[in-house]
Write the structure tokens for this entry.
Amino acid sequence: KQEVTQIPAALSVPEGENLVLNCSFTDSAIYNLQWFRQDPGKGLTSLLLIQSSQREQTSGRLNASLDKSSGRSTLYIAASQPGDSATYLCAVIKGVLKTSYDKVIFGPGTSLSVIP
Amino acid sequence: EAGVTQFPSHSVIEKGQTVTLRCDPISGHDNLYWYRRVMGKEIKFLLHFVKESKQDESGMPNNRFLAERTGGTYSTLKVQPAELEDSGVYFCASSPFGTVDYTGELFFGEGSRLTVL
């Protein structure tokens, strides 16, 4: 059974710091991994998608890495800003074939506060 | 292109009443998923449609929950009768199916917040 954990559960940093959020999963047979952001009372916004054949993806100040063999992904946020404050969720997507169904397992999230 | 839309954004009902949540996926997306997040817990899978067929409903908590996707377009999730523990945020997501460049990326709606009093 796939389990996804995220460390830390909460993080508070001063503005401008670089930070790393961690995601671990128990079953390395994943199709891809997706990082989301959730603002209070809002839906999930996709940040980065890493396919199982990839090692990392970058978008602006965000960089996500994936190490399937060790069951880990990290989300690196450079030069953090108060607007980055939100809950960050990782989700592993398990699909064997492109025509098979997928099941998405979410981690519990990391609540990030960036202090001005 | 419109994203995934959900209605209502917030519903407050009394225990024992019925509520129906609606999700309109992105046009052309065959995969439709329902998830929910109850207070303090992580987001949990409820069920998965491929077009109008229920592919996986292993996450549905009990028979008070009924999901439909007639015609393979929008989906409804009915809770009848609602209980206090059903309170939470219900998310819908969609993704395309079986295309050459299929990545499995999920696109989420804003969620429907359900409060059962």
